[in-house]
Amino acid sequence: KGWRCLQNQRRLVFIEDSVLETPLKYNLLLNRYYMDMFLLVLYQRIMLLKYRADIKFCSEKDRVKLFKDLHAYRKTYNLLVFSTYPLAERLYTYLYDRLDISGLEETTYIEIERAQTLHAQESTKLNEIIILWISLIAAILLPISSIATVAALDSGQMSQSFWRWSIGFTTATLFILLLPLYKKIIRPFLKGS
């Protein structure tokens, strides 16, 4: 073959034994085949670092676009086999491992999962606060609407059965509406003191 690929002090070294045109000279110097491979691996690393940085600082609106871009990146650049040419495959694997692309991918996806979990927690907390406020407003307005209903009735409609059902439903509804307020604010306060 006329040439070898060796490792010297953790660096990849190409050695030619011939002055004639060898596959190494043809691929590396004339067609720059291996240069493209190195640039591909370097591009993979740069993009993964960019995605990691973007995850930390992107807004809610940009997060969906970022995930779509990352999915497209994985479909295009997550290669199982780079080449059927054995040396090219070995060189690609060496560069891929040397630049720690798989470790960088793993930490990037861990960052994505953490960002998603944090976003889900924030959304849940916001929803709980909204439900708490709606329950509080409804609990304040319920007695007022009950009094207005009673005031609108004439004496013939207000039988003893009416009062039992009215008080029972009003009390049950008030209890259901105040339950989230009790769970969220009053019970933690009572446990703390």
Q: Give the overall pLDDT as a whole number.
A: 77
Q: In what range is the share of β-strand residues?
A: 5-15%
Helices and strands: which structural class? mainly alpha
Could you give the order of strands across the largest sheet? 1-2
Helix content: over 70%
Number of helical elements: 6
Order of helices and strands: EEHHHHHH
Task: Calculate Rg over CA atoms.
Answer: 34 Å
Shape label: rod-shaped
Tally the beta strands.
Answer: 2
Q: Compute the separation of the termini in Å.
A: 83 Å
Biggest sheet record = 2 strands, antiparallel
Q: Which residues form runs of ≥5 with pLDDT under 50?
A: none
Q: Which helices and strands appear, and what pairs or packs with what?
A:
Blueprint: E1 3-8, E2 11-16, H1 23-30, H2 33-57, H3 60-77, H4 86-98, H5 101-152, H6 160-192
Antiparallel strand pairs: 1-2
Helix pairs in contact: 2-3, 2-4, 2-5, 5-6
